[in-house]
Design brief:
302 residues, alpha+beta, two-stranded antiparallel ribbon, 9 helices, 12 strands, 43% helix
Length: 302
């Protein structure tokens, strides 16, 4: 074979290699283009579906917490703890009791003693304290609009399960209740987004009673703050939120019916202490609540 023939064959071989590589590159590019196009199509379909749902009103809102019937079932358990269970719990593990206030007239609204709660949804101590507050107040009246929630995920005792007073209401023949949640659990910069604003009258009560001599200097300004008609106050939680760590609101609500559980003893015992305070400011009404073992166990203590 002549040199010219060898050169010609080598040239043909090189050209085939170049063509094969080009063909391979084109195939890869076609596959990549097809994959990208498929992703874009899926993304477009999701956007159209979302917009269509929003426009038609058929798209249900997504919530991180139980809503509807599931939430109502939890609230029903919290607001109707059996009296026999609360009697069996008695003092439970309640140690941090409401502090009596002396020398003050009973604070009323509409002719009924007023209970003021001030807290925030991000606050884990508020999350813990709402449980006994709701259990106790439910023996004197009815809540509507309680929502299932949890404390902030980026604070101490993250995601402590709870209910929220934001947007709720309370009716009773014996008491008036104002539940104020000043901030949400949603982070905004170095704080959380605002919710309810204190009225001037509420702010005045907080300024006066959430400070010495009514609370210890180290607890002044703490939340949750509860003013029981200016006759007793609490500042901070009555038990550690750590007790509820890793639990759901449904699990906490279920545990309230077990007088032997640690949650039952903590929440039920503190609810009984609050009930005893409420009986003092209502003049011992209703009698079927205020004469029970759950209340009399705190006689002379609150």
């Amino acid at each position: 074979m002549s040199k010219r023939q060898r050169d010609s064959r080598e040239y043909a071989r090189q050209m085939r290699l170049i063509q094969e590589r080009a063909t391979a590159r084109q195939g890869r590019m076609r596959r990549a283009t097809a994959a990208i196009a498929a992703v874009l199509v899926v993304f477009a379909v999701m956007i159209v579906a979302k917009l269509a749902g929003a426009g038609s009103g058929t798209q249900a809102p997504v919530s991180a917490f139980p809503t509807g019937e599931a939430a109502a079932a939890i609230v029903a358990k919290v607001t109707s703890v059996p009296p026999a269970t609360l009697d069996q719990i008695g003092a439970g593990s309640a140690e941090v009791l409401p502090k009596a206030v002396t020398g003050q007239q009973i604070l009323t609204e509409g002719g009924k003693p007023l209970v003021l709660y001030v807290g925030a949804e991000y606050c884990p101590f508020c999350a813990a304290q709402r449980w006994p507050v709701v259990v106790a107040l439910s023996r004197f009246g009815t809540f509507t609009g309680l929502a299932i929630s949890a404390s902030a995920s980026d604070d101490v005792y993250p995601d402590t399960p709870t209910v929220s007073f934001h947007g709720s209401s309370y009716t009773s023949d014996l008491l008036t209740f104002q539940g104020v949640e000043t901030s949400s659990r949603t982070r905004k910069g170095s704080s959380y987004t605002p919710l309810d604003q204190l009225t001037p009258a509420q702010a005045q009560l907080v300024q006066k009673f959430n400070a010495p001599p009514y609370v210890d200097a180290k607890s002044a300004g703490s939340i949750p703050f509860v003013d029981f008609a200016n006759q007793a106050i609490t500042s901070g939680a009555s038990f550690s939120p750590d007790l509820l760590a890793g639990m759901t609101a449904e699990q906490v609500a279920a545990a309230l019916s077990d007088p032997g559980s640690e949650i039952g003893k903590a929440i039920g015992g503190n609810a009984n202490a609050i009930t005893a305070v409420l009986c003092k400011i209502t003049g011992g009404k209703p009698a079927n609540v205020c004469t029970t073992q759950a209340v009399t166990v705190f006689q002379g203590k609150v």
